Amino acid sequence: MKNKVLVVDDEQSIVTLLQYNLEQAGFDVITAMDGEEGKELALKEKPNIIVLDLMLPKMDGMEVCKELRQQRVMTPILMLTAKDDELDKILGLELGADDYMIKPFSPREVIARVKAILRRTQNPSETNEAETVSEGTIIIGDLHLFPDQYVAVFKGETLELTLKEFELLLFLAQNKNRVLTRDQLLSAVWNYDFAGDTRIVDVHVSHLREKIEVDTKRPAYIKTIRGLGYKLEEPKGE
Description:
By secondary structure, this protein is of the alpha/beta class. It folds into two domains: 4-122, Response regulator (Rossmann fold); 126-232, Winged helix-like DNA-binding domain superfamily/Winged helix DNA-binding domain (Arc Repressor Mutant, subunit A, Orthogonal Bundle), CATH 1.10.10.10. The chain has eight helices and twelve strands. It has helices at 12-24, 35-45, 61-70, 86-94, 107-122, 163-174, 182-190, 199-212, and strands at 4-8, 28-32, 49-53, 77-81, 99-102, 138-140, 143-146, 151-154, 157-158, 180-181, 222-225, 229-232. Helix 4 links the parallel strand 4 and strand 5 (99-102). Helix 1 packs across helix 5, helix 2 packs parallel to helix 3 (61-70) and helix 6 crosses helix 8. The longest helix is centred in the middle third of the chain and has 16 residues, at 107-122. The chain is elongated, with a radius of gyration of 18 Å.
């Protein structure tokens, strides 16, 4: 079966351009012209990935992303925006977007990003070396990671993670006790140049801590190494 892409944008020219190029690349494409319709189609059609514009009528992309995540819809989201605004970028990722692109963009780049996200989601064995170091279950304290299924369990409860959150947690776990710089994490997890924006790493680490740390101010798992980066370690006994 073909992968299904939902494109949500209020500019007809962009919708037409993306639909044509994605279909030429072998995808099934459904489209929406406003946020409310986009959200409804995401729930009804269950696409494999959503390409979501930020500025939309009726409901903006931020709100669509937020409401889908609140309803436990973890479909990967590639967010598009004409705003080259640092705050928008960080806020979009905080709300659960998996990736981010600034308009104008080339259809070829969008297709490359979509394929990369789906490859990591559906075929972990085809991802980069950092993600295939360990094929079995990884157990660190109360944290259990299942790389082949892209599933993380903490204290017996399955974690609701975005694709990037899972990949970051997995890479940290596969390098347990090793200090990793923000640039190393950007390269390994995002797999391309994200304009050197290491704040994206900090945002995702913060999200992970909220889900696996009892006290986010005194983390037991993901430690900040001041001036360097982060490392994941076995929690100390009480």
